[in-house]
Amino acid sequence: MGAAPYSLRSMAAGAAVPVVGAAVALAVSARLFRPYGALISSLWQGSAARWPPSPARAVVLTGCDRGLGFSLATHCHSLGLTVFAGVLDAASPGARRLVDLGVRVVPLDVTDGRSVQGAVQVVQQALKDDARLSLSALVNNAGVLVFGEFGWQTPRQVSLQLDVNLAGTMRVTRAFLPLLRAGTSAGPGPGRGRVVVVTSHCALAALPALSVYAATKAGLQAWADALRMEQAQYGVPVVQVVPGSFTHLSGILAAHAEHAREMEAAMTEEDRQFYGDYPRRFHEYLAVVSSLGREASERPCRLPDDKLHEMFEAALLSLRPAARYVHEPWRYTLYHSLMRLAPTGVRDWLAIRFASLPSFKDKRP
Q1: Closest CA to 187 of 235, 127, 227, 136
Q2: What is the per-residue pLDDT across 128-153, written as a single tens digit (0 to 9) for each?
Q3: Which of 197, 214, 219, 362 sees the fewest Cβ atoms within 10 Å?
């Protein structure tokens, strides 16, 4: 006679003691290593010494129409850096506002090779026109997120996320590498360029309904790890940045209603019978965040998080940058620590609770 099915609830209960023990161990370790905090922080976060911000240092950023990209473009501009802000739509509210602020806006569709080469030519010409100017950093920020179970998403939605988040980042980086290398042959100097890759907490621990997005960010993380080792021999640092949670301010869910309609239209009759009202409840649950995303896209602003901008400054300007900078509230730190230590059943339970999304089990015909 086979063993009875082991439910997620019973697995979570059975693993409660080791998880609590792990949490206690983390607290004790933190207390023991507190005297060495400064040393550990310096090793983990990289060198505190930085290049001084200067108009002679150029930064190229992708995805600046809204959200994090817009905020970083305005912040780098305020530091005195020369900013080339890549935008998908040069007529978008964010692009127009950047122009008003004096930022150089460059049309840049990361999925289009000709558009990428056009952006490279703009920057290349600027470097030729001003001998003092050097490309100090490429910040790969452009990203697309489609919220919904993998079984709901259309092939177009899956391809869009893969092409923007993963292939697009590779495409842009490959095109700008010669300009980033240009100042490295004579050793450290103001012309040394670096690649900054914006990943996600989903790369550290995937969440339900974000399977495709998480896959693209995990792929970015693996690619950036390998790229860091490859480019080190040429003097080009590769830095990963994991920003905190600000979905409602980023505008990344601005198109969620359109994506929801596309998923609904693509469902078969069998899908509709099986899922019942679950997809509708799921998308209605996200309606408020989607509305805030549209508002953030229409009126982009600087994100109200000074620590986030300070972390990006370190990634951009540190003489010896860390391999990865992570910006997160304490609850994220605890969550990811438990996810590394807990068994699979408990990790799944934690992720589901963390996401706090509607569930299929509550479906109604």
Answers
A1: 235
A2: 999 999 999 999 999 999 999 999 99
A3: 362
Surface-to-core class of residue 34, CB atoms within 10 Å of its CB (0-12 exposed, 13-18 middle, 19+ buried) = exposed
In 3D space, the residue among 137, 77, 103 whose CA is nearest the CA of residue 317 turns out to be: 137
At 286, the pLDDT band (50, 70, 90 cuts) reads confident
List residues with catalytic annotation: 213
* Cα–Cα separations (whole angstroms), residue 33 to 19, 47, 236: 21, 20, 33
Q: Which residue's entry shows tokens 């300009």?
A: 179
Pick the closest to residue 262 from 113, 143, 159, 125 (CA basis).
159
Written as one string, the DSSP assignment of 219-251 is HHHHHHHHHHHHHHTTT--EEEEE----HHHH-
Residue type, 190: P
- Kindly indicate the confidence band of residue 291, based on its pLDDT and cuts at 50, 70 and 90: confident
For residues 47 and 325, the answer to whether their CB atoms sit within 8 Å is no
Whole-angstrom distance, CA of residue 251 vs CA of residue 68: 9
Distance CA(254)–CA(251), nearest Å, equals 5
